[in-house]
Amino acid sequence: MSCCRNLKARAWIRRWDIPGQDWFENFFVQGLFVEGLERIPVERTEMEVAFIVETLGLPIGARILDLCCGIGRHSVALAERGYQMAGLDLDERALAIAQSRAQEARVDIVWHQADMRRIPYSEELDGVINVFGSWGYYDTDEKDAEVLGAVAAALTQGGLFLLEIINRDNLFRRYQPNTWTTEANGNLVLTRYDLDLTTSRHRATELVFRPDGQRFERWHTYRFYTLTEVIRMMRDVGLLFRKAWGGYDASPYTLESRRMIVLAEKTG
C-alpha cells in the first residue's frame, strides 16, 4: 500500500498492522527512551541535519522518509528546510510528541506507526534516513535484511539511503561486560552485556535501581555489523554503496570511529 506522491498533502498518524515485539516494549518504552531523546541538545540535532542535507544533496521539495523517526528531531528540522517529510516509528507516544513538535514548527509531516520492515511506499521516495542506531535489533540477520529490502522498494530509481549504526570494530576493542550509569531521574543502572562472538550479537540486561528502593529489569538484543556485511546486504537488495563516514563531522570512517554512517543508492 502506498501513499500519495505529495507527502505534504496533510499531517496525520496512520497505524499499520504491528506485530508483537517484546524487546521493543521492554527496552524502548519501559526504558523511557523518549525522555532520553527529548534531552538531546538542539545544537546536536542541527549538526546532524546539516550533515544529512549536505550528504544527500537532494533538491528542496524532495520526498524523504525518516525511518524510526522517534520524536521527530530530524523530520521536523528537514521539513523546516523545505523537504516533503514522512516519519515512521513503532512507538505511539514518540509519534504523538513528533506530531506536536511539527505543529509547533508549523510544518506538515505524514506520520506512520509501523514496524520498520513495513514501509508503506512503493518507488515513491527520493531519500530514506535511518539514524541514531535504529537498525540491528531484530533477532535474525534475515529480519534486518527485510528492512533494507523495504527501503529499496520504497525508493525511486537513483534514490538515496543514509544509515547510521555503531562501528562494530571500534566497539569490540573497548567492550566491557558490565557498566554502571545514572539516569537523569536518579535511577542507578547496572548493565550486563553477554556477547556472542560467533554471531556478533549481544544481549544487554539492565538492572534499574530507583531512588525509592524499587528495582526492575529491562533488556534488548543487538547485532553488530561490519561495513563489509552492510555493503553486501545492501547490494543484495539493489542498494549500491557510495561512501562511509565515521561521524556527523564528516570524518573518514576508520577503526577508531565510534559510528558508521553509510550512504547507498538504489540501482535496481
Explain what this protein looks like in three dimensions.
This protein is an alpha/beta fold and about 270 residues long. The chain has two domains: about 15-165 and about 225-265, Vaccinia Virus protein VP39 (Rossmann fold), CATH 3.40.50; about 170-220, N-terminal domain of TfIIb, CATH 2.20.25. It is built from eight helices and twelve strands. The chain has an eight-stranded mixed sheet, with helices on both faces. A hairpin with a 5-residue loop joins strand 7 and strand 8. Helix 3 crosses helix 4 and helix 4 runs parallel beside helix 5. The mean pLDDT is about 90.
What is the overall pLDDT average?
88
Strand fraction band? Answer: 25-35%
How many beta-strand elements? 12
Oligomer: single chain
Could you describe the largest sheet, including whether it forms a barrel?
8 strands, mixed
Gap between N and C termini, in Å?
Answer: 20 Å
CATH level-1 class of the largest domain: Alpha Beta
Order of helices and strands: EHHHEHEHEEHEHEEEEHEE
Overall tally of domains: 2
Structural class estimated from helices and strands:
alpha/beta
**CATH fold type of the largest domain:** Rossmann fold
- Share in helix: 25-40%
Shape: globular
Which architecture of the largest domain per CATH? 3-Layer(aba) Sandwich
Number of helices, counting only DSSP H or I runs of 4 residues or more = 8
Cα-atom Rg, whole angstroms? 18 Å
**Widest beta sheet: strand line-up:** 1-4-3-2-5-6-12-11
Unreliable residue stretches: none
The CATH superfamily of the largest domain is identified as Vaccinia Virus protein VP39
